[in-house]
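Milestone 3.1: sequence recovery, worked example.
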């Protein structure tokens, strides 16, 4: 089952799709997209929460969205799919071998889930990202977006980070989704960990973040916690985090890319997708 969380448009006018880029994020419980014009300004944005229990239900939900969404039927200048599935592993370039990628993912994440193994070199950091995507879901997007480009979320996240100036040597970056968080741990200017956690109550999130601080020798009172995504600053979840972390920052996106209609929402709600959208080459 798919539930539309946000449906935002710049105007009621038709999109000149021949000059636009379609950026999609696909995960186990989320499907969102943004349509950007040639100046990387957002013209349309939709965010769906997917209430599914397994890959078969996920496939059904995505098929229904793709079949019924008129925007997704438009022939865009370019379509980009960003996969946000947790079965991913970073491999230093000198150890990368295309022939062992499937075995590597099975070893790190188990072989219960079957899928297609993809890999991509992350520009500027000497690493490859090896990841697994459910085969039928990858096939769905290949059929509907025949000239599409495919990325993994972690790869783009790392590339975007390298383009930013003035970042601290150590910080935690947390992206909030419905019932899930995505965390990056940065220490000594290097990304030490990407990990996805599912949660039910606010205390779960605090536990995960504090546990990561313990594992990596970080002080929650002094480490910067950068937050973005679906978190309300008046929520129990936000207040629970403030009990333990002394330095917090809400990440936003450049006003130059934003829809005027987005101004009624906190800017950090959409910053993860919009930042990645502007980083896609």
């Amino acid at each position: 089952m798919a539930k539309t969380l946000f449906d935002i448009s710049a105007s009621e006018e038709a999109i000149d799709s021949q000059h636009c880029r379609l950026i999609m994020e696909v995960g186990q419980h989320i499907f969102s997209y943004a349509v950007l014009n040639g100046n990387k300004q957002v013209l349309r944005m939709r965010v769906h929460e997917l209430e599914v229990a397994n890959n078969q239900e996920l496939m059904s939900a995505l098929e229904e969205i793709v079949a019924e969404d008129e925007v997704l039927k438009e022939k865009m200048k370019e379509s980009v799919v960003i996969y946000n599935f947790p079965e991913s592993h970073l491999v230093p370039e000198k150890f990368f071998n295309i022939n062992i990628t499937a075995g590597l993912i099975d070893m790190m994440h188990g072989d219960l889930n079957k899928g297609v193994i993809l890999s991509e070199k992350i520009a500027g950091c000497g690493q490859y990202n090896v990841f697994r995507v459910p085969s039928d879901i990858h096939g769905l997007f290949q059929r509907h977006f025949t000239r599409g480009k495919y990325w993994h979320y972690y790869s783009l996240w790392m590339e975007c980070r390298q383009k930013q100036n003035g970042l601290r040597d150590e910080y935690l970056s947390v992206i909030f989704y419905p019932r899930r968080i995505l965390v990056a741990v940065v220490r000594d200017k290097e990304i030490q960990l990407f990990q996805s956690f599912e949660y039910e109550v606010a205390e779960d999130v605090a536990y995960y973040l504090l546990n990561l601080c313990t594992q990596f020798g970080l002080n929650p009172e002094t480490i910067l916690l950068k937050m973005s995504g679906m978190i309300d600053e008046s929520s129990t979840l936000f207040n629970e985090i403030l009990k333990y972390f002394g330095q917090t920052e809400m990440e936003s996106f450049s006003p130059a890319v934003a829809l005027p209609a987005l101004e009624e929402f906190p800017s950090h709600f959409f910053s993860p997708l919009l930042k990645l959208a502007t980083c896609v080459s």
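The helical segments are 55-68, 70-73, 101-109, 135-144, 153-162, 202-215, 236-242, 271-279. The chain has eight helices and 14 strands.
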